[in-house]
């Protein structure tokens, strides 16, 4: 169960969140719990989760180790800050910051190289879904952003299916729609990496997940976890999701 805070919270607000969240979900063992705050809060978050089962992730990762890449943060920097996860290819990065399937693959490879678990995001836009292109989009994103990994590399990633029309809109995909998309992705995994890889890979659903709809989503056997934006900003709400 991963929380994506996007561009919200200061370090002080981060510490306050974990003071409230830790007693509610800090010793969860039924799932991995990850919070991905803004870069400027990573140190505060890592300090605040010490001694708990909560892990900290980044929302993006540079493909290079270091260099003249103004505004980017590299894998070694994230590792030094205490991160163990990195979200890659979020639709907001694709939409506003020119992220492509090719750069998603490069960032995913960088995360793996430095020992971070990438949470690789895929998902179709509203016009794709309405135009009947959901499967094609997922297949293209898989082919360009994920299929370039080796089998051992693939075994270390987490995939997040986030239909763009459901992100921050209050419009959750129905559990059936989400499950169908997860089946499409898993079929691509099976074709490329084999049956065992398809069974083993964790595919998260993201898009307006909250404490009310998490149970029906998680009741779908295809859905292995959730990537939560808005509802992860509140400690009680994200704890209810973790403890669904
Ligand atoms: P949301 O965001 O839960 O606010 O819809 C999900 C995400 O973008 O990861």
The rounded distance between the terminal residues' Cα atoms is: 10 Å
Specify the CATH homologous superfamily: Aldolase class I
What is Rg?
17 Å
Question: Care to count the β-strands?
Answer: 8
Structural class per helix/strand content? alpha/beta
Biggest β-sheet description:
8 strands, parallel, barrel
CATH fold topology: TIM Barrel
Fraction of residues in β-strands: 5-15%
CATH class categorisation: Alpha Beta
What are the main properties of this structure?
alpha/beta, TIM Barrel, eight-stranded parallel β-barrel, globular, binds 2-phosphoglycolic acid
Overview of this protein structure:
44% of the residues lie in helices and 14% in strands. The chain is α/β, with parallel strands linked by helices. The protein has a single domain (2-242), classed as TIM Barrel. Strands 1-2-3-4-5-6-7-8 form an 8-stranded parallel β-barrel, surrounded by 4 helices. The chain starts with a strand and ends with a helix.
